[in-house]
Amino acid sequence: MAQVIDFTIRSIEALPAPEKGRSEYRDARTAGLYLRVTSSGVRSFSFVGRAKGSGRVERVTLGKFPAVKPEEARRRATMLLGDLAAGVSAADAARGKREGLTLRAVAALYFESLARRGAKGDTGRTIWALHVDAALGARKMSEITALDLERWHRGLPERIVRHANEARAERARLQAERRAAVAAAQAIRRRGPDPKPRDAAPGRKVTGERTANMALALVRTIYRWASDGTRGYFTGVNPATGHTLFPEVQRERFLQPHELAPFFAALASEPSETVRDFVLVALLTGARRANVVAMRWADVDLEHSTWRIAGSLMKNGQPQTVTLAPEAVTILKARKDASKSAFVFPSELSESGHMEDPRKGWLRILRASKLQDLRLHDLRRTLGSWQARTGASLLTIAKSLNHKDMASTLIYARLDLDPVRQSVDRATSAIFEAAGLKQSAEVTPFPAVAVGAEPKGKRRGAGAR
């Protein structure tokens, strides 16, 4: 017979493991809630009950302790008690709840769990809203098959491209309406120049394939999260696994040595001091655009040259302490002396109180520097690449850029070509030395060819020094 105890974390942790078999305990507060302890020390909650009008006693496993806490076990047991009172089998009720959940309902729970952990998940929410919800959200998780997801994934790039084109056309229409309204107002006043055309953003070819892969990965993550034993929202094989992804080319753009002079010259000619300082701080810290624009003086310690970014503001949910280079400290000290705002880059036009989109200033810098295919995020990659070029380890680069996964940092090992060039130079030098064409750094002439050879002394070949 099960011993009755009050289920608390402390009392459950104190329960001894039997020498063999298992021991069973019953909760003093909630009817039907039991705990089994095995000889290996595993503690599992279960619910035992009989539906109204049924003679069959059922047992439903609720989860293992400590993944499932006593209060959560009581909550689940209370729900099953209600089902039993209505004449519904406990096992059928648990199975029905799992099989009846839609992907949209579980996705909402998943994003709520991200928020509780302090992870932002903004990209995932956007992808869900634009590309997943309409197609799959209303369907039950148990009814979505791998074939359904394969067809959806393969057709998604076309829909993404169509959505991007429609959004671009809508932006152009709104911009034309604003320009027409400004021109009409100026015509009535009979003064002022025509509205200046807005700089177009650099053209990017949208294929939708990378976003389609991210959408499939999001669905796979939601299924994996729902299948966790402590939740039990889904049982079965994850239908989002095992699919062939669209090929992706990882972006490797960063400022090359020959591009630095024109870039800094263009930056020096930028009329907006705020834009100029923003770009420099972004380059010197390697921080993401969203973090730099929202930079607060309260988080900056100029005395110790550090900048603290809370985990709730980071893409991966991990807080970061950014080291500030002397050049960055100089820029920030100058801004602080003249600042009356809580933000380092304030804006009176935005609701947030800080700069939101430095795109116009960035386009001016690109136009002045004549650099092609350079994005703001490439400044972050530039810092990491130059760290690699100057001998920093991948672990150091990962820490400075707050990479949670070392795989994100491996790209910088590929971008540093200096060790490759030195190795190639040594190898080619050894080849010429082995061929007798290079001795003690002396240049040895090639022998003249038999046909069409030039007179002796007129044509000389040389091996690599």
Features of the shown structure:
alpha+beta, hpI Integrase, Chain A, 16 helices, disordered C terminus, 465 residues
What does this structure look like?
It is a single chain. With 465 residues, the protein is an alpha+beta fold. The chain folds into 4 domains: 98 residues, 2-Layer Sandwich (Double Stranded RNA Binding Domain), CATH 3.30.160; 121 residues, no CATH class; 147 residues, Intergrase catalytic core (hpI Integrase, Chain A, Orthogonal Bundle); 49 residues, no CATH class. Helix content is 47%, strand content 10%. It has 16 helices and 10 strands. The strands form 3 sheets. A 5-stranded mixed β-sheet has the order 1-2-3-4-5. A 3-stranded antiparallel β-sheet has the order 6-7-8, with no helix packed on it. The protein has a two-stranded antiparallel ribbon with strand order 9-10. Strand 6 and strand 7 form a beta hairpin. Helix 4 packs antiparallel against helix 5. The longest helix has 44 residues. The radius of gyration is 32 Å and the shape is extended. The C terminus is likely disordered.
Mean residue pLDDT: 83
Total strand count, please?
10
Instruction: Supply the CATH superfamily name of the largest domain.
Output: Intergrase catalytic core
CATH topology of the largest domain: hpI Integrase, Chain A
How far is it from the N-terminal to the C-terminal residue, by CA? 90 Å
User: What class do helices, strands and sheet pairing give?
Assistant: alpha+beta
CATH architecture of the largest domain: Orthogonal Bundle
CATH class of the largest domain: Mainly Alpha
Estimate the strand proportion.
5-15%
- The neighbouring-strand order within the major sheet is 1-2-3-4-5
* Largest sheet features: 5 strands, mixed
- The DSSP helix count reads 16
SSE succession = EHEEEEHHHHHHHHHEEEHHHHHHEE
Gyration radius (Cα, Å) is 32 Å
Low-confidence stretches: 449-465
Query: Overall 3D geometry?
Result: extended
The total tally of domains equals 4
Roughly how much helix do the residues carry, as a percent range?
A: 40-55%
